[in-house]
Amino acid sequence: MSIEQTLSIIKPNAINKNVIGKIIDRLETGGLQVIAAKMVYLTKARAEEFYAIHRGKPFFNGLVSFMSSGPVLAMALYGENAIAKNRDIMGATNPANAAPHTIRADFADSIDENAVHGSDAPDTAKQEIAFFFNRNEIFIR
Ligand code: ADP
Ligand code: MG
């Protein structure tokens, strides 16, 4: 067990559905603390930069358009095994395969518009938190 930080993003479709509070409740109830949060609009260029690892994949352009279709809520989460815990609470990438009561099972529209992002490993978590937050915007307590 280790104490970790991870990046969560509430994606534009979930923001439009007015379920920010419901999603954060799942994260908090699951044992994660929100230690940073901001609502931001990702330009196409910023969305491309964030998802650079997926450049060239067939879903890349759609993903970038979707992520820049409206504001997102970026959050840094903190807790024991935060990276895996967040991924468990989120559910599988394709909501059709997401376990019952996960965020994606309940709030995703499709694999393309799947409500939330979560970092997948310690190195990407660190990189992705730094993409959105300066050190003085993160409040560990
Ligand atoms: P995750 O968000 O679960 O870590 P990936 O990192 O593999 O998933 O993909 C990033 C995002 O790209 C996914 O959340 C999803 O929105 C989109 N995506 C991934 N695979 C597909 C696919 N086969 N078709 C459409 N969109 C996809
Ligand atoms: Mg991923």
Task: Describe the structure in your own words.
This protein has 141 residues and is an alpha+beta fold. 39% of the residues lie in helices and 20% in strands. It starts with a strand and ends in a 9-residue tail after the last helix.
The dominant shape is globular
Percentage beta strand: 15-25%
Major β-sheet annotation: 4 strands, antiparallel
Instruction: Tell me the number of helical segments per DSSP (H or I, 4 or more residues long).
Output: 7
Look at the structure and give the mean pLDDT: 98
Give the termini separation. Answer: 19 Å
Name the hetero compounds present.
adenosine-5'-diphosphate, magnesium ion
How many β-strand stretches? 4
Order of helices and strands: EHHEHHEHHEH
Structural class: alpha+beta
Strand order of the largest sheet: 2-3-1-4
Radius of gyration: 14 Å
Query: Helix fraction?
Result: 25-40%
In terms of per-residue confidence, which ranges show pLDDT below 50 for 5 or more consecutive residues? none
